[in-house]
Design a protein that fits this description.
Blueprint: H1 9-22, H2 27-34, H3 60-63, H4 73-92, E1 101-108, H5 122-140, E2 145-152, E3 155-163, H6 166-173, H7 187-198, E4 206-213, H8 227-236, E5 239-245, H9 251-259, E6 264-266, H10 270-279, H11 295-305, E7 323-324, E8 327-328, E9 335-336, E10 343-344, E11 348-349, E12 356-357, E13 362-363, E14 370-371, H12 374-379, E15 391-392, H13 395-400, E16 437-438, E17 445-446, H14 448-458
Parallel strand pairs: 1-2, 1-4, 4-5, 5-6, 7-14
Antiparallel strand pairs: 2-3, 8-11, 9-10, 11-12, 13-14, 15-16, 16-17
The protein binds zinc ion (4 copies).
One zinc ion (ZN) binds near residues 439, 442, 461 and 464.
Main location: nucleus
Pfam families: C1_4, Ssl1
Subcellular location: Nucleus
Length: about 475
């Protein structure tokens, strides 16, 4: 499996800014402009001295406008168009993404989490979001693993060790009594613990932390190591650190995320907080890994040197990884597992050393082999080989050619071309005036609903796979 090693966060940032500058106002684009992507995009504001996160709050319901006849149809259509356009811009930028991710969520459980500026409290809101975040994260990163660290009373504690089982994390997150906020957080202790928890991981995987920081200060231990030396360690170990602050912009937080290639954002309200969190779900655009000299890697690099790579001008270096597909055990008697040392029913056998593991994906506790199931591997290809965007069809194109009258996906009849008025054809770019979207490969036409379903859920073109 090819993996790259050129870590160029600057390139990624540029591309994102391009997308954002073109983006239309809306709940999510407001979020990005205001926070994570930096202050650049907000430069058009009236007062240049203001911070991005102080930007005016835009109400999502103001964006939806009725047309002359009092209908919301056109407004809804333009919202859909916006989504399509955003996706088109995303898909057209050639990016390398890492599919194997290890993420530590560092949760600030200091007293400030009891603040009631989020209803009912910050604590409740964060826990609720985290539960859906974890599910969504594993859905999009089937080969990834998540661990959770909490910071309270100036200490940090591993709440959930790094693992690939969302159920385990969800059950810990629903136990509120164990998570009671108290004291002050220590950002330094949290980061040191995350770094330690990832020290054994191979450089082929993307190491990340996501810090949800509610406090406005950090109470770090007195000693030779300071938060700045920890930051230097994070940079050397290439641990991408993203921070979402609830209270305000904190200089050290911003510094940490900027220097490690992560994202920093200040949540303006609950929806914005969700936007910021969800932005960290898709796989990051470049992996952070040091090239090691392996014969195969050099061969791959030599092969790809002939290909064109316009992003950085440097040759992406390929890499091979060892993975194993485990044997699933029947739910018979209880046996001892290698990962927890507990008697459990079911589980999987490592194909290399034969030890029993509770869940996949995981790294075998005994031989260190990465054990994945094939559906997980297949799903992780969504982002590597996305379905190309379907082209919009103009009225003339449908008139000219002998096209089918029904959608190739759901068999719904397309609207009659002759009845389409000139005015309707002038809708925002991205929306087909004929209601048809054509796959460039298989030349099948799909309706708008099928188009969304194929690109967002199915991730494969039904026409091409026939
Ligand atoms: Zn186990
Ligand atoms: Zn093993
Ligand atoms: Zn359809
Ligand atoms: Zn197709």
């Amino acid at each position: 499996m090819p993996l790259d090693s050129n870590y160029t966060p600057a390139v990624e940032d540029e591309e994102e800014d391009d997308i954002l500058d073109d983006d239309l106002p809306g709940p999510s684009s407001r979020g990005k402009k205001g926070g994570i992507a930096g202050n650049k995009a907000n430069g058009k504001g009236k007062d240049p001295g203001r911070h991005a996160w102080e930007a005016e709050y835009k109400k999502s319901w103001d964006i939806v406008q009725e047309d002359e006849s009092g209908s919301l149809e056109s407004a809804v259509e333009s919202l859909l168009a916006r989504g399509r356009r955003k996706r088109a811009l995303m898909a057209d930028t050639p990016l390398r993404r890492s599919i194997i991710r290890h993420l530590f969520i560092i949760l600030d459980l200091s007293e400030s989490m009891n603040d009631k500026d989020y209803r009912p409290t910050r604590f409740e809101v964060i826990l609720g979001y985290l539960r859906s975040y974890v599910v969504e994260w594993f859905d999009q990163n089937p080969l990834g693993q998540i661990g959770i660290i909490m910071m309270r009373d100036r200490l940090s504690e591993v709440l959930v060790p790094m693992g690939g089982n969302p159920q385990e994390i969800l059950s810990v997150l629903s136990d509120k009594r164990k998570l009671e906020p108290s004291g002050e957080p220590s950002l330094q202790n949290g980061l040191v613990m995350a770094k330690g928890g990832m020290s054994h991981l191979p450089t082929t995987s993307s190491l990340e932390t996501l810090i949800i920081f509610s406090s406005i200060s950090t109470a770090d231990p007195d000693g030779p190591s300071t938060i700045h030396t920890v930051l230097q360690d994070l940079v050397t170990n290439e641990i991408r650190t993203s921070i979402i602050a609830l209270a305000g912009e904190i200089k050290i937080c911003k510094q940490i995320s900027e220097r490690t290639g992560g994202k920093f954002g200040v949540a303006l309200d609950q929806d914005h907080l969700k936007d910021l969190m969800w932005e960290t779900i898709p796989p990051p655009a470049t992996t952070i890994s040091n090239p090691t000299t392996i014969g195969v890697r050099n061969a791959l690099a030599a092969a790809s040197a002939t290909g064109k790579n316009g992003v950085t001008g440097k040759t992406p270096v390929g890499d091979l990884m060892v993975m194993g597909f485990p044997i699933q055990l029947p739910l018979g008697g209880e046996t001892l597992c290698a990962c927890h040392g507990l008697l459990k029913k079911g589980g999987y056998l490592c194909p290399r050393c034969g030890s029993k593991l509770c869940d996949v994906p995981t790294d075998c506790e005994v031989c260190g082999l990465m054990v994945v199931s094939s559906p997980h591997l297949a799903r992780s290809f969504w982002f590597l080989f996305p379905v190309a965007n379907y082209g919009v069809l103009a009225v003339e194109e449908v008139m000219d050619s002998s096209t089918s009258d029904t959608c190739a996906g759901c068999d719904v009849e397309f609207p009659d071309v002759t009845s389409i008025e000139e005015g309707v054809a002038q809708v925002e770019d991205g929306v087909s005036p004929t209601g048809r979207y054509r796959c460039a490969k298989c030349r099948n036409d799909f309706c708008a609903d099928c188009d969304l379903y194929i690109h967002d859920t199915l991730h494969t073109c039904p026409g091409c796979s026939q």
